[in-house]
Amino acid sequence: MPILDDRSFEFFSHSPEQTRRVGIRLGSYLKPGDVICLEGNLGAGKTTFVQGISQGWGSLDPATSPTYVIVNEYHHPELGILFHMDAYRLAECSDAEMLDIDSMLNRGVLVVEWAERIKAVLPEENLWVKMKWTNAEQRYMHFIGSGTRHETLNTQLKQSIFGGD
C-alpha cells in the first residue's frame, strides 16, 4: 500500500458507472496543457475512465479505445482537443516522440493509457492515475499530482469526490 501525502489519494470504484462518474468530475476541471497518465493492466478500467473524462470535459465525440490508431481526438467547441493516446502498441519511447506530444499540449489536453510505457517522454508535471482490477466490479485508483497545476487538479478532484478541505 502506498504512503499517501498531500499530493495523492486513493479511491475504490464499485462499478464501471462509478469509474465513469469520477472521470466526468476530473474532465470538468481540465484545461489545455493538462496531462493525465493512466497506468494499469488490461481490465483496470482505463478506457471507461477516459469515457467519463471526455464527457466531463465537454466533448460530444464518443470515446473509444485507440489501441490500433494510437491517438483518438475528442473535440470541444472552445477548449480545443482532448487527445486520447494508447501507448500499449508503442515499441519504445522514440515512437511516442514522433507523435509530437508538445503540439498536442499546445492544442488541448492529453490523456495517455499505458503511460508507464512512455514515461520518459511525458511531461514530469502530470496527474498520474494508477488503476488496478480488484474484482469483477471493483477498481482501485491511486491519484498522484506532480507540479503545481496537477497538484491543484488532484486536490479539486479529491474535494469533489469526498467533500471537505
The shape, in one word, is: globular
Give the strand content. Answer: 25-35%
Biggest beta-sheet profile: 7 strands, mixed
What portion of residues is helical? 25-40%
Number of strands: 7
Distance between the termini: 24 Å
CATH architecture: 3-Layer(aba) Sandwich
Low-confidence spans: none
**Which strand order do you get reading across the main beta sheet?**
1-7-6-2-5-4-3
How would you explain this protein's 3D organization?
With 165 residues, the protein is α/β, with parallel strands linked by helices. It has helices spanning 16-27, 46-57, 93-97, 101-107, 148-162; strands spanning 8-13, 35-39, 71-76, 80-86, 108-113, 126-133, 139-146. It starts with 7 loop residues before the first strand and ends with a helix. 40% of the residues are buried.
Produce a short descriptive summary:
By secondary structure, this protein is of the alpha/beta class. Helix content is 31%, strand content 28%. It has one domain: 3-Layer(aba) Sandwich (Rossmann fold).
